Amino acid sequence: MAIDLSITVNGMKFDNPFVLGSGPPGTNGKVIARSYDLGWGGMVCKTMSLDASKVINTAPRYAKLRARSADEVIGFENIELISDRPFEDWIDDLTQLKKQYPNKILIASIMEECRKEAWQEITRAVQATGVDGFELNLSCPHGMPERKMGMAVGENPDLISEVVGWVKEVATVPVWAKMTPNVGNPVVPAHAALSAGADGIAMINTILSVIGIDMKTLRPMPTVEGHSVPGGYSGQAVRPIALRQVMEVARAHPGVEISGIGGIETGHDAAQFMLLGASTVQVCTGAMLRGYEIITELKADLEKFMVDHKFGHLREFIGKSLPYFTTHHDLGERQRLAREAKEQARATSKGARALDAQTWQGDIAAESSKLVTN
Ligand SMILES: Cc1cc2nc3c(=O)[nH]c(=O)nc-3n(C[C@H](O)[C@H](O)[C@H](O)COP(=O)(O)O)c2cc1C
Fold this sequence. Notes:
The chain is an alpha/beta fold. It folds into 2 domains: 7-324, Aldolase class I (TIM Barrel); 326-374. Helices cover 41% and strands 16% of the residues. The N and C termini lie far apart (69 Å). Residues 21-24, 46-47, 76, 78, 80, 82, 109, 137, 140, 178, 205-206, 234-235, 238, 261-264, 283-286 line the site of flavin mononucleotide.
């Protein structure tokens, strides 16, 4: 059976749905080129801004949560900011990449101060490099909100509408809005973005967290000069939260293009996001922990899933599990009806068995009387 992993989303044709998510895996042109060579379907590069001199990163800026009984990393926290590389370097890298890899999808993640001129300036400048699309980072949960950027915008539907509207006024390529999971109802910000013209939704960014305390020093981690800040949680542990948020937005906006993100490390993880409505998936922490080479395994796993279920193309199963979500009240009703139906069936079969037994006893009696007569 021929399996086709390619998919066209908002006019962008991806060889396969596996996209490297914004972060360390897409930190410069050289590593992005390597990811294309290894077979990734697309790349959302590390978020850039016009003035990188305002971005001051710390060391350390990562911390890991390990499983109790093994060494496996199940959760990951970072306090990394957006890219601290000069904007001009990014412009050179993006221009070069589009020349070298015209058929590979390159999405620029951008973030700016909450001013129309700034957002429109960065959109115009980056667009001139030939990128295929934009992802608006409205969701970084640490550091940037102190400058009224990132999640400070993404948690406020009015600001989301404004920023998306400004970008859409000048963008000639598709625009995805990357949402924060640090809100009660993810449908509200997604709705604001789509109403303002966003072509798709990328979700989720990291979850605000405190990964733990160093039990020797009693200082929170990651510890920078003895101190810390809450950071962004990612990796396997966030997947159930991301799946739920994707599901909610997909159900509220049927057919909308969603790029599913959060703890994806296998082809089966990816398939689950797609079953809940995502048309592409992004991998960040998984690639940091296991290397860009996991793309081979991701594609093979997804293909196997498709063969097992006889799906030839991704669109055949995107959103397929969505109809099976309902209200808790409805679950109770379904359970009551199923029990009643079972009891009814049991009663019917008991009646039938009693009838069978009667007939059988009748037959025996008739046979016995025949024997006596004979
Ligand atoms: C170290 C690190 C840096 C990140 N930097 C960015 C960023 O610059 N822009 C952005 O939109 N998301 C950033 N993210 C968030 C990821 O793109 C992704 O949304 C999140 O980590 C969840 O996916 P994952 O579990 O596959 O990592 C970063 C994540 C990590 C772990």
